[in-house]
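User: Fold this; tokens only.

Assistant: Input:
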Amino acid sequence: MTIRAGVVAVQGDVSEHAVAIERAAARHGTEADVVEIRESGLVEDCDVLLLPGGESTTISRLVHREGIADEIAAHVAAGKPLLATCAGLILVSMDSGDGRVETLNLLDVTVERNAFGRQRDSFEAPLPVTGLDEPFPSVFIRAPAIDEVGDDVDVLAEWDGKPVAVRQGPIVGLSFHPELTDDSRIHDLALFDALKSVRADTQP
């Protein structure tokens, strides 16, 4: 069985996420057909979707201009898994704290951009994450933090007292960059474990 995985590729660590997705798929004994999404018409055919980091204002402008934003919303409404990392987390939030970012309003959180400092303040830390047996080597680069979470949002991890990994329905949002490590457990947890649950729920 082959999983069709879309990576929104208007900006960000596209190739690194593609490798992580393929590695996670292999853990499940399957293959991943990774599609780079830069225009509308591709999201609908994807089983799982990934919205990577980058510059949130640029990503916001491009996904709306290219008609991808509404397709991401439809993907989530259909219960299909979405992993949103760093700027992707900002984009799917209800409130980015920045009027230049037109958010998708898919994840009931408010975020603070660059909450852990600028580029020079980047760091890596072993992060305990709900659902993982061992801490995850999390890379924080100009990372946002989550200020508030809605009642239906589960906090999966915190750093310095702030939520940095959350789940709501089929969406997992992260402040950090899991693709910058050789550890694919986050992609596994957010995309493939979730997809397995979705398919189990839809079986007659």
